[in-house]
Amino acid sequence: MEELEHTCPHPRTTLTEPAIFASETSCDCRAPHEKLSITQARRGTPVDRPVRVYADGIFDLFHSGHARALMQAKNLFPNTYLIVGVCSDELTHKYKGFTVMTEHERYEALRHCRYVDEVLRDAPWTLTPEFLEKHKIDFVAHDDIPYSSAGSEDVYKHIKEAGMFVPTQRTEGISTSDIITRIVRDYDVYARRNLQRGYTAKELNVSYINEKKYRLQNQVDRMKEKVRNVEEKSKHFVYRVEEKSHDLIQKWEEKSREFIGNFLELFGPDGTWKQVFQERSGRMLSYALSPRESPCNSPPRELSPLRSPSPPSPPARWYNARPSPPTSPKGASASISSMSEGDEDEK
């Protein structure tokens, strides 16, 4: 009998395209699918096909906790083909509650996770042996906290008993319930945010009064932001003025010290000006005490032939001398009589 080769799909080697959706049969391989133990799978056997690991969930508001769980499932064995089952809206609303994202949005979110090789839509709430056989699933990955639902204390109990369960670790501090709790707690903040972004009160299911209140709060917040910006700019301006003032004062001090030093160097007790003044005073004193004499044998000054000697000045006449004004009437009469006598003598 001819031995059949395994034709199971292999893990993705490129991340340029999203993961595929599982078909009706999921795996068309007709080769016998032997059951593996965890020890065998971790050793890398079998070598002719990948280890098919299944992880299921709701994956509403897909977050880092979901991604980390799928990363752990993908890295359980050296050659892992990860199949992710996503439950439909009908099953989720029936057994768990309403979701934020629709089933199609959740399917697409899982397709674009790098660790996922295949997405199984409308996954069952409870895994049956027929389902595991149909999709040739070797192991099921999930956190080991008992998951009570659909009238069962743990929906993975029979998987654990069959030795097909591989636990993963939960990420603390992040979950879909935590995210929804934050939104509900800060509902007013997000309602105001979306009103500001253009959503209508009807779309947000907000009453008329609350809408006006939120819009007024948004205006107040905008005014606060403007005031805060003005304060920041003012602080920055004051800081720049202080910095410039410090620089100017520093430069002024440097110039002042330089000016004072130059002044003292010039006019100080031992300055240059004093030395110059002393030197000039000494020269002037020496000239005053010993004037220069003209030589004895110097030739007499000759008149220029071109210039004629100036005529002698006429003798001073007596009438040119103006008498001083009299100090009294008697003096005035005496001066007049003397002037008349002089005229007569001249005649």
TrEMBL record:
SUPFAM superfamilies: Nucleotidylyl transferase (SSF52374). It comes from the Eukaryota. The keyword Transferase applies. Pathway: Lipid metabolism; Phospholipid metabolism; phosphatidylcholine biosynthesis; phosphatidylcholine from phosphocholine: step 1/2. CDD domains: CCT (cd02174). Its EC number is 2.7.7.15. Belongs to the cytidylyltransferase family. This is choline-phosphate cytidylyltransferase. It comes from Xiphophorus couchianus.
